[in-house]
């Protein structure tokens, strides 16, 4: 079962992205962040960035931590969220395939060993990051409701989460 851990166990986990601070990232030697959008920063059905998101980006910016959104969503969805705030992004990323992760690392001109992927899904965000050799942080989904493309992944994810929970590897605390 070591393979499950290698590919699907995140380096760390937080209940929400907002708790991931520049200080924490720096303490782990992280200089750049790739983050998922849907159900990581906002609900998948929320078109625009909110105060909480903008504040978080600002605090990363002020601490010289680069952030790029890497989403499997469409140009419309991701552009509408990012363009008004000059947030860098890659849309239709086809996570868990590795190319968009590598492209984002290149865009930020960073080393992949100093880059972390933040996301709400083991099957896409974490799996892709672990394959490429990035650190990964799992967060709880912002909303219970998912887009249609995620329903099957969540079923597999529940099995993986149960396994990690039983091994004491991921415990959310309630
Ligand atoms: Mg997501």
Describe this structure in words.
β5, α6 (122-132) and β6 (135-139) form a beta-alpha-beta unit. A 6-stranded parallel β-sheet has the order 1-6-5-2-3-4, with helices on both faces. The model has no long low-confidence stretch (mean pLDDT 95). The two termini are 25 Å apart. It is 40% helix and 14% strand. The protein has one domain: HAD superfamily/HAD-like (Rossmann fold, 3-Layer(aba) Sandwich). It is an alpha/beta fold and 174 residues long. Bound molecules: magnesium ion. The site of magnesium ion has 7 residues, from loops. Magnesium ion is lined by residues 36, 38-40, 119-121.
Topology of this structure?
Blueprint: H1 2-8, E1 12-14, H2 22-27, E2 32-35, H3 51-62, E3 66-70, H4 75-82, E4 88-90, H5 99-107, E5 115-119, H6 122-132, E6 135-139, H7 151-166
Parallel strand pairs: 1-6, 2-3, 2-5, 3-4, 5-6
Residues 36, 38-40, 119-121 line the site of magnesium ion (MG).
